[in-house]
Amino acid sequence: MALALEGSQALARTVALCRPQVVAAYPITPQTHIVEGIAKLVADGQLACEMVSVESEHSAASVALGAAAAGSRAYTASASQGILLMAEVLFDISGLRIPLVMTCANRALSGPLNIWNDQQDSMSMRDSGWIQLYCATNQEAVDTTVQAFRIAERCELPVMVCVDGFTLTHTLEPLELPSAEQVDAFLPAYTFRHGLDPSDPRSLGTLVGPEHFSEVRHAHHQAMMSAQTAIEQADADWADVVGRHCGGLVESRGDPEARLGILTLGSVLGTLEDAMDSDPELPRARFIKLRSFRPFPADALRKACEGLDHLIVLERALSPGAGGIVGPEVQTAVIEMAEPPRVHNYAAGLGGRDLSLDLYSRIVQAAVGAERPREFAIIDADPELLPESDR
Amino acid sequence: MNEQPLHHLDTLRARQPRFRGLESGHRACQGCGEALAARLTTEAAGPDVVVANATGCLEVFTTPWPQSAWRLPWIHSVFGNTAAVAAGMEAALKQQGRATQVLAFAGDGGTFDIGFQALSGMMERGHDVLFVCFDNEAYMNTGVQRSGSTPHAAMTTTSPPGELRMGKRHMKKDILSIIAAHHIPYAATASVAYPSDLRKKVRRAMDTEGASFLQIHSPCPLGWGHEGAKTIEVARLAVQTGLFPVIEMERGELIGTLPIREPRPVSDYLKLQNRFRHLFASEYRARKELEHLQAIANRNIERFELRGIGSEAYDTEGADTVHRGGDRWA
Amino acid sequence: MIQIPPGAFARPGTSLEFKTGTWRVERPVHQRRAAPCHSACPAGEDAQAYLAKVELGDMRGAWETVVAANPLPAITGRVCHHPCESACNRAQYDESITIHGVERFLGDEALRQGWSYPVPIPGAEAPRMAVVGSGPAGLAAAYHLLRGGCQVTLIEAMPAAGGTVRTAIPHYRLPPDVLEQELDHMLALPGLDFRLRTQLGRDVSLEELRADHEAVFLGPGRRKGREWSADFAVPGNLRTGLQLLEAWVAGGTLPEQPRSVAIVGGGNTAVDLARVLRREGVEQVHLISHQRIPAPGVPDDDAMRATYREVSQALEEGVTIHEHRGVRRLILRGERVVGMELVHMKKLEDAGGRLRRVAFEGTETVLHVDQVIPAIGQDVDGTGFESLVRRGYMEVEPWWGTVNGQSGIFSGGDARSDHGTVSEAVGDGRRAAAAMLRYRAGRQLEPGVPPEPIPYSDLNLSYFETAPASKEPVLPPEQRLGLEEIEGGLQANAVRHEAHRCLSCGDCLACDNCWTLCPDQSVLKTREVAADGSHYVFDYDYCKGCGICAHECPTGYIHMIPE
Questions:
Q1: How much of chain B exceeds pLDDT 70, in percent?
Q2: What whole-number percentage of chain A has pLDDT above 90?
Q3: How far is CA A127 from its chain centroid?
Q4: How many beta-carbon pairs below 8 A join chains A and B?
Q5: With an 8 Å Cβ cutoff, are B125 and A74 in contact?
Q6: B87 at the A interface (CB within 8 A)?
Q7: Which of A93, A222, C327, C485 is most buried, taking the most CB atoms under 10 A from its CB?
Q8: How near does any CA of chain B get to the CA of A70, in Å?
Q9: Residue contact B91–A67, C-beta within 8 A
Q10: For chain C, what are the domain ranges?
Q11: Are A30 and A165 in contact (CB under 8 A)?
């Protein structure tokens, strides 16, 4: 049965269906409605869970870490500065191979202060060793959240479910929530294999010296790479339950015959699809939805790019002084193809900048019309607003 | 000599009539007060615990992979989040319906400074966690830098004495009062020089429901500049001089002290340690700082009413009395 | 090959693979050192060792420890001047342990319980040894020879055993039933051929003894009164102090009843006699001594030889002591003494560095007394071994008691010029017995070295608490009229209290300090006593040699030695 729910409320109810035993969070816009929703469910007795309202995101991640290490299913959520304050703990969680799930309600980073949506926060945690799954819709956010617990627990890796702030979290959309029975069957009670247990007292978080550290990192990397299978499997298995796919690692949509591809992460996909659909005169494009940014699914991506002449990578974050973050990775992946597409890399929609329908034609023109791949650009930046020296 | 076949010692070790929470083979320096404090704490706590341990000497010297000196479930995450990790473990165990107790271990850096916010939050939320601060009064793991716990006038590598300075300019943070202001059911200090008292307080804290706090004065021979053999002597003098008050607080109120039978002059304590060596130079500012530290000790004695009345079984002289057969320490 | 698990967790206690013992430059070792009480005991008793057993409630074991050195603790516990207590480290802390009270209790308890001496029954082929004299020296020699597996012929000229202990110690210090019981107990040991009324030189010759035995111990004591006069005057009724004392001890009466008496001398005989005279109703009893009343701070060579306890009790009982006085002349009416002239005297070093008594002119005083009794000591009665006596004494090698110039003949006790107490006699007998066993075995007698006591400064006093000593009940002076023993014994709880107070100098107290304070879990506790007598072993695989255990050992039992 379809419900009209705000994204955050849908996520709160989904998280509750996953029966976390400990939820720790510190409020930050635009994540607040999610944890408020969970707190209310706990307060109403609808979720048996320790809701730990901590004094900082650093502690939120730490409480979740401690709870998961002690063998409980744990969850946290944050955004923006909160993600950065968590940073050292996030690296530690993944390095210790502790499974937990976090929602990142994607938001720009300070400074200057900006509370609106882009993906600079999760992108800044690109190398933290977490699985990152990006959601294009609230329905995907709901389904991905359930899958995330399965993936985390199977792989003994933490999973960050990236949901665009406001665009998804604060938007009412009709969607379907799974039933408790469906989720319970999909997520049986979980035991952490190498958790803290007085009957088998392991030491976690040891000091690893130069003679072993490369192997530890190698193992982590391998676990991340292997997680691709688990991500696809979870999506397939969940589809068996609810009849909905989220797209596995990479999903191709739009016109399969098109020679032009547009790769996106998150909710911008819907805007671009609407734009293409709104005007049959516009060039057709194949949309490549990169759902799993980490692990980076190079094989799946190459497959999705077959037959393309041009590939536009549209990001909502950047690496100042270099350009895009995802673009260069995509470029590196497709270069292995027999006939690789020409890769064009743009950023747009930073700090909540509205993504209007004409974005589609702007990026297509910029890319296809170019003699050679244009340099990286924040394509919706208005030079008029800048002094000459900064244009 | 006591050369005995190894298998004999192995058997003997396995049969020790106490819980060996912290096993031999750890890499603490000779005479490490923190290692002793941790050994005593875990001994008193017993095996049905989980421990969160901050970054620091204790973490480093106990767990160089693939070895661990712990015989209890233990986790180290990062430097400043120990109380939060412990809170998470407590929340998990509570939700799982398990009675396993949660301990958090940190040095003074992980307690007074970088770990303070998480500690304050944990206590405010009332998690049933015993947070133990092994207070060795500086950042020892990184090579003796000053912390919020470093006593006034002590020399560290970041508070060196010189033409313009006489060691640390600031005071030692009164952490226990800050902790007590959280209105937690039990907060206490202890010293490795009084192991029975220490263990009793660990047990008491663990029996207390809610957040509890124990600050254990733990000399660092390397950082303080004294012989490893004198760790206990130095620790005892810290208590006997009044520089380290051994007290107990419940709900923010002082409810007990280890009375000082006969206060010793602070110089007895200071002169054993290189970190205070500059206070014994024959110059006015050295004399002044020496008197300053004596005044701090006097103020402690006055404030916590540490002065004992006569001889008591529980005072600075009576609390470490030994007897044949060792029942005293049990 | 170890493989890295997810997150690189480690298994419990795996640090044992890392042997931190390699860091060590010094190692702790257990090293038992003599307690001062042990070093100071003339009889060789290890009080610390038996106090430890008392504290554990092992009274019989404690007694066995006592009698490993001294077979007569009920006697010495009463009569010894207990130098152990003067030496006791605890004296510097609060008060010394009442060791003699514990010794006495154990001696009495053994008699009450009938505990048998831990002495083997000698076989028919056991070596035969001879002992002359059944005073404390002879008894101790005989006993230790029996302990060493010998058969012993013990001859005694008198009709009863005990020597001076029987003849010259007043019953108020040593009740006769205690004396009889303890002597009987010891003399009943198998392998002992005890012959009373057998005098050397009359009933048997030294040569005969030497011929029939492997070695001979001579414990003749000193029974020959020295000649005494003052300014060449000798009163007609002169009797020596020892004669009077023996008469009183034997019969309970004195031949005369003077009103005032001066006893010349400062030894135990003089003091004992002074006290006997007070009991016999003599109003004024004066004691004239060249030396001072023994007290803490008075150097040994300037103190009366009588023990502090006896002197102070004598003072309590109304004896007047004239310190630093000598007798210049007697004032006689005919042969009867009516007084004496005293003069202040003191020992001073002369130009050659020797101590000489100097009388100070102009300090003369007259003391009116009815009787003068010299108690200035006795010489050895050398009947039967005249050639071995020099200047009234036996000259012996000080540790083993080998009589100078002799082979197989040993001596000790009062017969030596330098010994005059029961405990010294017991010690002499004990060491001589050891020497005799070595002599028989053809072993060299290495020079004996008394055990070096552990000094007070080597203890860690932080771990002890002050506690008053248990005091024996003492009869108030006004009630000390008859033969009743003046000092009562300690009760069992007081004895345990004293044992509990013992600082256990130089020996393991099993206090757990090392076990408790080792940061490295490298002191392991043993269930039974470990091979070295402690309750702990060091695990040198892990001991880093920090030295905390040694520094904090309350009793100085742990030492750091270089690797």
A1: 97
A2: 95
A3: 13
A4: 166
A5: no
A6: yes
A7: A93
A8: 5
A9: yes
A10: 11-32+508-562, 36-117+459-500, 128-223+380-440, 229-377
A11: yes
Domains of chain B: 17-319 (3.40.50.970)
Q: Which of A360, A354, A343, A361 minimizes the C-alpha distance to A382? A: A354
Nearest to C4 among A96, A202, A212 (CB): A212
Average pLDDT over residues C528-546: 91
Rounded to whole angstroms, how far apart are CA atoms A286 and A266?
16
pLDDT, position B12: 94
The reported pLDDT for the residue numbered C357 is 82
Of chain C, the percentage scoring pLDDT greater than 90 comes to 72
E strands in C380-460: 389-390, 393-394, 409-411
**Chains in contact with C via at least 3 Cβ–Cβ pairs below 8 Å:** A, B
CATH number of C11-32+508-562: 3.30.70.20
Mean pLDDT, residues C137-144 taken together: 98
pLDDT reported for residue B6:
45
Q: b/e map of B167-182 (b: 16 or more CB within 10 Å)? A: bbeeebbebbebbbeb
**What confidence tens digit (pLDDT) does each residue in A17-34 have?**
999 999 999 999 999 999
A212's tokens: 């072993």
Q: What CATH class does C36-117+459-500 carry?
A: mainly alpha
Q: Which fold has domain A2-191+207-242?
A: Rossmann fold (3.40.50)
**Confidence at residue C373, expressed as pLDDT on a 0 to 100 scale:** 92
C531 touches chain A (CB under 8 A): no
Which of C521, C526, C540 shows the shortest C-beta gap to B22? C521
Query: Which residues of C, range 189-248, sit inside 8 Å of B by Cβ?
Result: none
CA distance A285 to chain C (A): 43
- B34 pLDDT exceeds 90? yes
Residue pLDDT, tens place only, A43-70: 999 999 999 999 999 999 999 999 999 9
Using an 8 Å CB-CB cutoff, list chain B residues near C62.
none
Query: E strand or H helix at A346, and its extent?
Result: strand A342-347
Which residues in chain C touch residue A152, judged by CB atoms under 8 angstroms apart? Answer: none
CATH for A250-390, among 3.20.20.70, 1.20.1050.40, 3.40.50.1860, 3.40.50.920? 3.40.50.920
Q: What is the rounded radius of gyration, in angstroms, for the C-alpha atoms of chain B?
A: 20
How far is Cα A134 from Cα A167, in angstroms, rounded to an integer?
Answer: 13
Q: Which of residues 84-113 of B touch C (CB under 8 A)?
A: none
Pick the CATH number of C128-223+380-440 from 3.90.226.10, 3.40.50.960, 3.40.50.1970, 3.50.50.60: 3.50.50.60
